Amino acid sequence: MSKQTYKVCFCFRRRFRLTATGAPPPIKALFERYSDNGIMTADHLQRFLVVVQKQEKATLEDAQAIMHSTAHIFHRKGFNLETFFKYLFGDSNPALDPDRSVHHDMNLPLSHYFIYTGHNSYLTGNQLSSDCSDVPIVQALQKGVRVIELDIWPNSTKDDVHVLHGRTLTTPVELLKCLKSIKNNAFNTSEYPVVITLEDHLTTDLQAKVAKMVTETFGDMLFTPDAEVLGEFPSPEFLKRKIIISTKPPKEYLKRKESKTSEVGSQRENDASEAWGGEIPNIKSKSTAEFKDDLEEEDEIEDFQEDSCDPVYRNLIAIHAGKGKGGLDAWLRVDPDKVRRLSLSEQELENAAKTHGPQIVRFTQRNILRVYPKGIRFDSSNYNPLIGWMHGAQMVAFNMQGYGRSLWVMQGMFKANGGCGYVKKPYILMKNDSIFDPRVILPVKMTLKVTVYMGEGWYYDFSHTHFDAYSPPDFYTRVGIAGVPADTIMKRTKTIEDNWIPAWNEEFEFPLTVPELAILRIEVHEYDMSEKDDFGGQTCLPISELRKGIRAVPLYSQKGDKYKSVKLLMHFDFV
């Protein structure tokens, strides 16, 4: 790269000087401090790792291994400035430890974990007219999702079972095809259990058919508890490589109440209009007085008649679900002798949280709470997952086939714990002596300092007119926190004009009251004076696993695919 020409009109062209990637001044200053005569030896590097990168246990052998692993770029005597900078900005220096696999205690009951959960996992697109397929199920499992939802309905001739979004124009897919795809892909990414949540709309004879399909497909992989009702959930470790069925105990099909299908006039939320997805809704300011006619999915009171269901099918249900009779107090009652799963829509949870926040947290210490998108999200958009997580909800169910900021935060949370799909809930949500109240603002526990040095890679991953037809791009970075309301904030750097390799060198501070639930959000955009700013990359990182020091941070597309070259050079510290 030296110069780049942009055509302005028929007669004129603009030429811009393209600078090569070089170390910003703070990196040059560090190199001067940890080198002699322009060479950083292994001894220097080891001291740099301990003091700057906060890797207190780093040894001389570790430093030598880094130099040997980057032998293609380093001088035989050690790093010079250029090779040191390439090491810092390289793939071997990420913000999350690449060698850190599953490290949380996996021997606690399932209720002690956040679980990577999908909603209507079979849909390829919107909630009303897209195709149903096993492909999005496979894609979700490959990304580490551990809870798959299937809506099961009789086919047109009432002699087989289809998976589809009922009372919509979605095209069905055979249940057996979905089950086989789950079996073949369940444990390729993670060995920890896969839960299949069934929304059952079947007659008794078709329930028997489903039971036969499930048992024949999964065989010994299927977890069937000895007792009809569990007194405590088993642990993820105990359930490794097991398939778990969860649904409401079956009801008499003919007496099943019809769901409301009234559609709300606005099918899209206002904040979903941006090309890369709307900003995550603020939990504090969210209005809950509207959308009374949501097309909800599990809002029925349990009035089932056990004698009308197939006994084999009933025995397959390992995690029983349902609200039971009564209101919110009854739903959240903790039974010392049995555990269960409760499902609430995002709207129901937001309303309940206003008056029953601590009770919800107490309920989730033993039982499982599943939260699902409200019915008017026809475009398969998502909600702020923190509303569920900060109340202890284990299964915050998301539409995985879309994209947007809420889904990016979800993906960031489950980068933790080796990406296994299970993240141990923080102690603050599990202690019994003083139940956590999400509405109470706590004292600041720590402050995260983030420095955004520079970025590169857009020149290689995008066409030279992708961002601006007449000049190089004008990039800025947004960085902030998704967390409890007191911690949630977004800040931004200045805009660097006409530069493919922007250098911001800006520092930000983020006081955190509940760092255990905080996710670091990073986005790059290209400023556009006349239109909406262009998307330039994003990532979300769990603060609980963020490595201190100077790190290379690769960025991802709107759909969550990693760019080949685009990345930021950043510094992280906790005080």
TrEMBL record:
Catalytic activity: a 1,2-diacyl-sn-glycero-3-phospho-(1D-myo-inositol-4,5-bisphosphate) + H2O = 1D-myo-inositol 1,4,5-trisphosphate + a 1,2-diacyl-sn-glycerol + H(+)
InterPro entries given in the database record: C2_dom, C2_domain_sf, EF-hand-dom_pair, PI-PLC_fam, PLC-like_Pdiesterase_TIM-brl, PLipase_C_PInositol-sp_X_dom, PLipase_C_Pinositol-sp_Y
GO cellular component, one term: plasma membrane
Cofactor: Ca(2+)
EC number: 3.1.4.11
Pfam family, any one: PI-PLC-X
Cellular location(s): Cell membrane
Membrane-protein topology: Peripheral membrane protein
The C2 domain, residue ranges: 425-557
Residues of the PI-PLC Y-box domain: 343-429
Name of the protein described by the UniProt record: Phosphoinositide phospholipase C
Organism (species): Mikania micrantha
